[in-house]
Design brief:
Layout (H helix, E strand, L loop, with lengths): L1 H26 L6 H8 L3 H7 L3 H21 L9 H18 L1 H12 L8 H29 L7 H21 L6 H15 L5
Helix pairs in contact: 1-2, 1-4, 1-6, 4-6, 4-7, 5-6, 5-7, 5-9, 6-8, 7-8, 8-9
């Protein structure tokens, strides 16, 4: 019975996350109420509060379901001395682009995060999560760029922290632009060319 109850709770949580993604996409995050999500999920509002204390926590849980695998890929970089840190960095970035371009659910969640969220008072925790992701991502990129430069015995053409910020901005800009009109270009192909050109400008590629 306890196992069934746990499975039921997990299923309800999954239903809420899926419903949140759909309703956020339709109405925008700030204009969506918890009651809207409960109705879309076919549960009571009390069921939401059993799993999430507010809309921001629900939003961040929805984001985690798509972003955590990507964050884990980034966090795994640099742990194998036999791997080229530059190749690892390129692979991680392009895997993120591939997931967004090819997986409908990941794409839908990124569309909500990119185009449908406003940092109003009730969503300040969402803004903080985005800031944390940015800081963690650029820190890992900086470490990879420094390791790649050391392995090649070169000096980067700009400070590593600035280079990481620029690389992160390049990724975010590509994702945002593609989300506005996915038919305009192939995200993975254009990202690969842009990233390699950027890395060449840093002196890491011929």
């Amino acid at each position: 019975m306890a196992r069934r109850t746990k499975e039921d709770a997990e299923e309800t949580r999954h239903q809420l996350l899926e419903a949140a993604q759909r309703v956020f996409a339709e109405k925008g995050v700030s204009r969506t109420s918890l009651q809207d999500i409960a109705q879309a999920a076919g549960v009571t509002r009390g069921a939401i509060y059993w799993h999430f204390k507010n809309k921001a926590e629900l939003f961040n849980a929805m984001m985690d379901s798509a972003i955590l695998p990507m964050e884990q890929t980034m966090q795994q970089m640099g742990h194998d001395a036999a791997q080229d840190p530059l190749a690892e960095l390129e692979s991680a970035m392009l895997q993120t682009m591939y997931s967004i371009e090819s997986d409908a659910r990941t794409r839908a969640i990124f569309e909500v995060a990119t185009l449908k969220v406003e940092y109003v008072d009730e969503l300040l925790a969402v803004k903080q999560r985005h800031v944390t992701c940015y800081e963690d991502g650029t820190r890992q990129m900086q470490r990879s760029l420094e390791d790649a430069a050391a392995r090649r015995a070169i000096t980067l053409s700009m400070p590593s922290a600035v280079a990481a910020q620029g690389l992160h901005a390049l990724m975010v800009g590509l994702i945002h632009t593609w989300m506005l009109n996915p038919a305009a270009f192939k995200l993975v192909a254009v990202s690969q060319a842009a990233i390699r050109t950027y890395l060449a400008g840093l002196g890491l590629r011929p």
